[in-house]
């Protein structure tokens, strides 16, 4: 079983789609997407939790991973699968 994955996203973000593809290729079947493009309250929530303004912002369990570049780097270091399995 993989960890709960939450991704703050927008409807037209190419990096969000790439992050989703990477996560699915690592066995994640369910990603809770929070679309912030039309909701300022959700955007403010994302900024408050991450101190970042760009999407995607990805959480695996309680761990804030960051954006696509951070997720990809974690995968290349071999740390993504253990995080998905342990969270």
Main beta sheet: 4 strands, mixed
> What is the molecular shape?
globular
- Rounded to an integer, what's the Rg over CA atoms? 12 Å
Q: Strand arrangement, largest sheet? A: 2-1-3-4
Q: What are the low-pLDDT stretches, counting only 5+ consecutive residues below 50?
A: none
CA distance, first residue to last residue: 10 Å
**CATH-wise, what's the superfamily?**
Glutaredoxin
Classify the fold: give the CATH topology: Glutaredoxin
Strand portion: 15-25%
What is the CATH domain class?
Alpha Beta
Percent of residues in helices comes to 40-55%
Structure commentary:
The protein has helices at about 15-25, 40-50, 70-75, 80-85; strands spanning about 5-10, 30-35, 55-60, 65. With about 90 residues, the protein is α+β, with helices and mostly antiparallel strands. The protein has a four-stranded mixed beta sheet with strand order 2-1-3-4, sandwiched between helices. The model has no long low-confidence stretch (mean pLDDT about 95).
């Amino acid at each position: 079983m993989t960890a709960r994955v939450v991704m703050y996203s927008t409807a037209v973000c190419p990096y969000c789609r790439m992050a989703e593809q990477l996560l699915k290729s690592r066995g994640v079947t369910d990603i809770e997407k929070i679309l912030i493009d039309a909701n300022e309250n959700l955007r403010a929530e994302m900024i408050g939790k991450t101190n970042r303004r760009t999407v995607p912002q990805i959480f695996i369990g309680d761990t804030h991973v960051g954006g696509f570049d951070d997720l990809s780097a974690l995968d290349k270091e071999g740390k993504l699968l253990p995080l998905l399995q342990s969270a």
